[in-house]
């Protein structure tokens, strides 16, 4: 409950400062219980375009991540699916799901795709230990 109040207060303060101060947010994303990414935390950056909320935010991992997707391509933030009424939790939840459920059989980065999912998970875990935020 305290976290919700804090976020609401910070959102109100950002809103009072004007939209230009709200365009670039760095967020810590921690995936604490699902391997292979549970050995570290990942900083992400959410960039809100000047046309927000009519155009979707862009999400970038600032911490290196071993993920076959290579970039954040969530259907909810694609230009064809974006709706101005979309809330931030509707963007964050699919992002967490993407990191928690890597799918090597549908890669965007063929160099990281591996037929052996156990090998992929082992490599991703080692990469997370090395590069993940402590």
UniProtKB/TrEMBL annotation:
The keyword Transferase applies. SMART domains: UBCc. Residues 1-134 form the UBC core domain. PROSITE patterns: UBC_2 (PS50127). It catalyses: S-ubiquitinyl-[E1 ubiquitin-activating enzyme]-L-cysteine + [E2 ubiquitin-conjugating enzyme]-L-cysteine = [E1 ubiquitin-activating enzyme]-L-cysteine + S-ubiquitinyl-[E2 ubiquitin-conjugating enzyme]-L-cysteine. Its EC number is 2.3.2.23. Gene3D superfamilies: Ubiquitin Conjugating Enzyme (3.10.110.10). Transmembrane segments: none annotated. InterPro entries: UBC, UBQ-conjugating_enzyme/RWD. Keywords: Transferase, Ubl conjugation pathway. One of its GO terms (molecular function) is ubiquitin conjugating enzyme activity. This is E2 ubiquitin-conjugating enzyme. It comes from Nomascus leucogenys (Northern white-cheeked gibbon). The lineage of its organism: Eukaryota, Metazoa, Chordata, Craniata, Vertebrata. The gene is LOC100591412.
């Amino acid at each position: 409950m305290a976290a919700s109040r804090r976020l609401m207060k910070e959102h109100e303060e950002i809103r009072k400062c004007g939209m230009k101060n709200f365009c670039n947010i760095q967020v810590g994303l921690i995936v604490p219980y699902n391997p292979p990414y549970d050995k570290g935390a990942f900083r992400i950056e959410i960039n809100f375009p000047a046309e927000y909320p009519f155009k979707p935010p862009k999400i970038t991992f600032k911490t290196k991540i071993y993920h076959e997707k290579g970039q954040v391509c969530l259907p909810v933030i694609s230009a064809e699916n974006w709706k101005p009424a979309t809330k931030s939790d509707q963007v964050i939840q699919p992002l967490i799901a993407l990191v928690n459920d890597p799918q090597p059989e549908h890669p965007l980065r063929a160099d990281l795709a591996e037929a052996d999912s156990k090998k992929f998970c082992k490599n991703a875990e080692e990469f997370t230990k090395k590069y993940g935020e402590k």
